[in-house]
Amino acid sequence: MTKQIYPIIGMHCASCKLLIEKMVGKVEGVKSVHVNYATEKMTIEFNEGEDSDPRLLESIKHAVASAGSYKLIDDEDGKTVLADPSQTKKIESHHQMNQSDNDSHMMHNENNVGKHNHAAMLKKEEYKKLKRKVLIVGLSALPFLVVMIRMVLIQLGVLEMNHAPLGLIYLSVGGEDSDPRFQINLFFLIQFIIATPILFWGGSQFYSSTWSALKVRAANMDTLIAMGTTTAWLFSSIVTFFPNVFKDYNSDVFFEAAVFIIFFILLGRLLEARAKGQANDAIKKLLELQAKEATVIRDGKEIKISISDVVKGDIIIVKPGEKIPVDGEIVEGSSTLDESMVTGESLP
């Protein structure tokens, strides 16, 4: 049995994890599949000798694509990653730019693979883009917050309603005495103008994810967000432009509900991405404390090799002050070891 691990870029929905596991698990030759939403990795276990079959990889790619337009695609490092639709476009555009460049920038062979982590770079770009979107949506939502606070203060009696509040000013096609069916509440219209770009630009990722899921007759968390915000926006738009649909031409709008749903979901994803980034940085710093080389006895001589070249049965020499490079048994000698990394003790 062999195992392959694929990094994930751009997955925001736990239900997408379940869908991918379900679709990939059906592929013949795949023994098990596990998508870790927290660590952003997909682990696939293959039956013995089948991991190198190109037809199996194509079947897995097709299964992943059927789970909501996700793709297994090679990034600029030559690593195969699992990417969502938006990240897939970025990777493909990078490939196109490289192909149009000269050979020194176009080729990624074994000598330069790993010198830069393209998957990590894409995650940083995604975080910056999300941060910028949260800032813009948040600032655009401030007018709705001011209006909501004002209405609460009016209901509590702290403020008094003006004689001619903006909500009572109408744009009439036929003048002030025109039929109410042709009157548009100016306050509602302003809310529509502000809320519409917030909804369809700020929440574009929710709608694209929903459409991808619906194409395979599935639903995810983004589906609920898209349904809720679209319903609020559509109802409010009808109230704004077709007030005659409702009795007495009087009904409230809920543009602010759609706007704040989009804002808080984006803010939550930003905080989640930040927490994951900080956790990854902490793990990387911890791994940097690991020994990079080991002194082994080969052909009766002591030589230094990378710990990745250490094989089972090697005799390793650990001199005073050096770190223990790998796990093993002490076959000769004695010393005092610093086990604080393992036990958490503050002193050796």
UniProtKB/TrEMBL annotation:
GO terms for biological process: copper ion homeostasis. It is found in: Endomembrane system. It comes from Candidatus Dojkabacteria bacterium. This is Heavy metal translocating P-type ATPase. It is a multi-pass membrane protein. Gene3D superfamilies: 3.30.70.100, Calcium-transporting ATPase, cytoplasmic transduction domain A. One of its GO terms (molecular function) is ATP hydrolysis activity. PROSITE patterns: HMA_1 (PS01047), HMA_2 (PS50846). Its main location: membrane. Residues 2-68 form the HMA domain. One of its GO terms (cellular component) is endomembrane system. The chain crosses the membrane at residues 134-158, 182-202, 223-242, 254-271. Keywords: Membrane, Metal-binding, Translocase, Transmembrane, Transmembrane helix. InterPro entries: ATPase_P-typ_transduc_dom_A_sf, ATPase_P-type_domA, Heavy-metal-associated_CS, HMA_dom, HMA_dom_sf, P_typ_ATPase. It comes from the Bacteria.
